[in-house]
Amino acid sequence: MRVQFVLQEIWIGLRRNLTMTISLVITVAIAMALFGTGLLIKAQVDSSKSYWYDKIEVSIFLCNKVSSNTQCGKADATQEQKNQIKQTLDGLSQVAEVTYESKDQAFARFRESFASTPGFTQSARPGDIPDSYRVRLKNPQEYKEVVDAVYGMPGVDQVVNEQEILKKFFRILGGLQWAALLIALIQVFAAVMLVGNTVRLSAFNRRRETGIMRLVGASNTYIQLPFILEGAIAGMIGGLFAAVLLVGSKVFLIDRLQGSLQFASQLSWTSVFGVIVFSICVGVLLCAVASFLTLRRYLRI
């Protein structure tokens, strides 16, 4: 098989259908960028879930003078009530560790955690966050027993299970991930249609050359290979543009989410590189397979 002839045919096909080739490259780039972004968000969410799973706590906020709970009576929890709550928590088999956090400690931790958003921290005042017991569980799934044991006790304002908060948080991120993947699927469908039209048009423009090749005994593989490689090359170029967009997604989307939403673990560039390579391979394979199927389904060459 003459490699020079195949390369020449590929160049002729790409040049004759330049507008459609550019459209195909752009469509593949957008589709693979959205697909890769969805994978990056999924990787970030999975990494954060793994990190937070063993660190989920139940926070038991104590009564203070600004509590909305009528049971508190607009008064701070007494030392006797605090001791009783602590004793109850220490007696639970589900509890691994109990830590007391005063108002000042809670406010200092709040300012440290949200130091990147000064407008948010400046709106808070010392005392806005009440005293609390922070309970780390042996098994995060057994939080209900702890909540039921202390809920309604004298001195308890409210009980917050961080797992419920994190579930809602990760559900939102999961929605973003599926939205990106859904849009990517729509773009992939558009890319497949463009590949089919580009290949059909290219084959129609070269029907005389392919007819002569058929008469002199050229095999189907030899005739079809330039068309398939045209699609694959367009897919690779689109994948390379998608790689640039994915780097931008890492820097301007994932990293900013990590800073704004206080992700404990940062997505590594190794994971990003793996997603980029996978997206390029998917783009090339998608266009090559679409070209092959179009030739078999619609064309007689």
UniProtKB/TrEMBL annotation:
Keywords: Cell cycle, Cell division, Cell membrane, Membrane, Transmembrane, Transmembrane helix
Keyword Transmembrane tagged: yes
Gene Ontology BP term (one): cell division
Subcellular localization, as worded in the UniProt entry: Cell membrane
Superkingdom of the source species: Bacteria
Domain ABC3 transporter permease C-terminal: 182-298
Coiled coil: none
Gene Ontology cellular-component annotations: plasma membrane
Principal location class: membrane
Domain FtsX extracellular: from-to ranges: 56-159
TM spans (from-to): 21-41, 178-201, 222-247, 267-295
Membrane topology category: Multi-pass membrane protein
Pfam families found in the cross-reference section: FtsX, FtsX_ECD
Quaternary context: Forms a membrane-associated complex with FtsE.
Family to which the UniProt record says this protein belongs: Belongs to the ABC-4 integral membrane protein family. FtsX subfamily.
NCBIfam families tied to this protein: FtsX_actino
General function of this protein: Part of the ABC transporter FtsEX involved in cellular division.
Protein name per Swiss-Prot or TrEMBL: Cell division protein FtsX
Protein source organism: Actinomadura craniellae
Lineage: Bacteria, Bacillati, Actinomycetota, Actinomycetes, Streptosporangiales
